[in-house]
Amino acid sequence: MRPQNRLRSARDFELIRKQPNKADCAAFVIYLTRAEDGRAFSRFGIVASRRTGNAVERNSLKRIFREIFRSALPDIKNPCDIAVFARRAALRFEFDNLAKRFRKAVEELSQK
């Protein structure tokens, strides 16, 4: 994933989290805000806290969600910022199921 497509600062995550535009799933909570600063690209960030598992499980979840974002990026028409807060239940889902839930949530949130 390119550096321009990453959410990095805690300030960015807090700004996105304060927005009411979110979708709750059994595996994750996703927040989406439209890019209003004239950017032509979307940004993505993932949070996997210690509650989601040990370091190996957290890093695995991060890699999975980054790949899901990377594969969904061509389908995201309007530039936006997406923050995903993973839950421990995400470890029980298959990759395809998580990808389907992610795409559905992004589609619903981008229409609001």
In whole angstroms, how far apart are the ends? 26 Å
Q: How many distinct beta strands?
A: 4
Share in helix: 25-40%
Radius of gyration: 13 Å
Stretches where pLDDT falls below 50 for ≥5 residues?
none
Percent of residues in beta strands?
A: 15-25%
Offer a quick outline of the entry.
By secondary structure, this protein is an alpha+beta fold. It has helices spanning 10-17, 55-72, 95-111, and strands spanning 22-24, 28-34, 43-47, 80-86.
Textual characterization of the structure:
The chain is an alpha+beta fold. Helix content is 38%, strand content 20%. The protein has 3 helices and 4 strands, in the order H-E-E-E-H-E-H. It has a 4-stranded mixed sheet, sandwiched between helices. Strand 1 (22-24) and strand 2 (28-34) form a beta hairpin. Helix 2 (55-72) packs across helix 3 (95-111). It is globular, with a radius of gyration of 13 Å. The mean pLDDT is 90.
Q: Keywords, please?
A:
4 strands; four-stranded mixed β-sheet; alpha+beta
